[in-house]
Amino acid sequence: MAIFGKLAYDAGVSTLTLLFVRFALATVIFALLLAARPATVRSLRGAGRRTLAIGLALGAIGYATQAGLFFAALQRLDASLLALVLYTFPAWVMLGSFALGREQPTRRRVLALALSSTGLVVLLAGASAGAVDAVGVAMGLGAALTYTVYILVADRAGLEISSIALTTLVCVGAMCTLGLVGVASGSLDLALSADAWLWLALIAVVSTALPIVAFFAGLARVGPSTAAILSTFEPVVTVALAYLAFSEVLSGIQLVGAALVLGAAVLLATQGRRGAPVPPDY
Questions:
Q1: Residue 178 and residue 68: Cα distance in Å, rounded?
Q2: What are phi and psi of 173, to 5 degrees?
Q3: Closest CA to 24 of 243, 254, 200
Q4: What is the pLDDT of residues 151-186, one digit of tens each?
Q5: Which residues does 102 contact at the CB level (< 8 Å), separation at least 6?
Q6: In angstroms, rounded to a whole number, what is the distance separating the alpha carbons of residues 3 and 10?
Q7: DSSP state for residue 136 in the 8-state scheme
């Protein structure tokens, strides 16, 4: 998604236009998926007002904010560095769980938090002078923290609907918020080039709808721990593709930091925790 986002920016797409089109197209895709599953549609219709309101709010407030911060940061940071900054979220989720009393500290969890924190410091300190935009880093961390709140709230809400139904509600909520903000600010522009529409379509299909469906299909086959461990390969793919597409290269010391961040994610995933809700990116 970070790669397609960079290419969309190069094609002249504004951040709000990118986000609105992404969630609008994703909403259409998931609506079609729901239409093909009558039982899921019936369960969604039978969901209470509280469930519907929380699902829409998760998208309208939580995910719209997270996605906005992520793509704003993408204008300032390399795709590879931003992906790794975002992937500190497992440690933030754990820290939030400790603070709320939902989980108790263990040696494994404390070690994972230390690894992730150290890795983030090494990543940023290892950048060459002037190469890291402080505002971009702040936005990237803001995206990770917003994502953390999203997960903790969704987990606490205990919504009794399918993941596809919840994702559809989240996409609808995010689409409405971003559309209203785009219209109010005058920055929503759908008169785009063919190249721009191509990158936006790929973001909606390849980087949003397809990974969600694939993730849940894999989750049903291999279980949450294996699925979570495999998902840590995501920032590795981003780093590799960023090198191929934009010649972005992490320094040696930054690679050490990246390894620490990913190691923390793997360590957390292998402790057999109950899986948290997966957002529309995964």
A1: 9
A2: -60, -45
A3: 200
A4: 888 877 777 787 788 888 999 999 999 999 999 999
A5: 152
A6: 11
A7: H
Which residue's structure tokens are 């998760």? 58
Residue type, 261: V
**Best CA proximity match to 178, nearest among 55, 16, 15:** 16
C-alpha–C-alpha distance, residues 95 and 97, integer Å: 5
d(CA 60, CA 172): 8
Neighbours of 155 (CB within 10 A): 17
For residue 17, give Cα distances in angstroms to 71, 88, 125, 185: 11, 27, 33, 11
Task: Look at residue 278 and tell me whether its pLDDT is greater than 50.
Answer: no
Give the pair of three-digit tokens for residue 246.
């934009």
SS3 call for 133: coil
Number of residues that make up the chain: 282
pLDDT digits (tens, 9 = 90+) for 47-65: 888 888 998 999 999 999 9
pTM assigned to the model: 0.83
